[in-house]
Amino acid sequence: MRLGLGVDVWASPRVDLPLSRILLAERLGFDSVWTAEIYGADAVTPLAFLAAHTRYLRLGSAVAQVPARPPTTTAMQFATLDALAPGRVVCGLGLSGPQVAEGWYGQPWGRPSARLRDYVAIVRQALRREGPVAHDGPEIRLPYDGPGAVGSGKALKPVLHPNPDLPIFLATGGPANVRLTAEVADGWLPLGYTPGSAHLYEDDLAEGLRRSGRTMADLEVQTGATVRITDDVRAVLDAAKPGVAMRVGGYGSAEHNFHRDAMVRRGFAEAAERISELFAAGRRDEAAAAVPDDYVDDGALVGSADRIAERFEAWRGTRATGLTVRPTSVAEMELLARLAGCEPRPDVEVPGGPVF
Q1: Structure pTM?
Q2: DSSP classification of residue 307
Q3: Contact 41, 74 (CB under 8 A)
Q4: What is the crossing angle of helices 330-340 and 305-316, to 10°?
């Protein structure tokens, strides 16, 4: 099991990368570090900074938002990043949601699955540099010939010679997009994937892989888990519930909420409906209290070192090849590195001072 370190600059009003923590992860043998974006700090710029300060960690976005950039811009940015850190870059992409796509980026939500397929196809073309980039898809056309076009668009071939095999991961959760991921992507950043729910995705993964003539050996699965060493499991679970309630009840809209959909898929439909109702009514404390313990605990690595070790084994029985964590102590990082069988890198220097 490869370990990834999640860095949540996206959620902060300031850009403050925890470099000592990232370098400790590199020294302990972690595989990767992951950034993200919503409508604050972007996902790519911090990775460029980390490219200059690390030597081994893979640098991934989980995720860079599809409506934020034309696909050729995404190809340019990640190809440039890969030129600065050869072989260490992962282009993780996600659709976001209609509120962000249309409200922040001014892009149509359209048909998200078709848009994602078009987007990946264009990024692949640009990275492979086999000819001028052109695409005639149901959602994206290059050269552009829609409203406002003057008719002078020209298919262009990238100037930069990028890594043609730069991996593309997709963040998906619904059946159609999980199938698409298994068909066209190098890796999957799943939503709602836990040891207790992993079986729900098997058929869609198998169908997507069948379409492309591949097997699970061709697809990385980088999921995530909460980790806390504690003697009060309930307190940790309760502390996580307001965030779950906000995502299930407050993200997206009544028609589009991927976190609510994920809760339903995992067998918690009644809880998802109740949380949504309470959150919409402004009863946020009650919405948090309605989050089931089992929903939070499934897949979490919370408790004593022995309990975490036992639950870590459950992850080994899934398709996950990587686990992204957000530890709160050095002890948690060291425990996970030991459980995952990481190979330490003693040549990595960690600066003095606090890691957390």
Answers
A1: 0.96
A2: H
A3: no
A4: 40
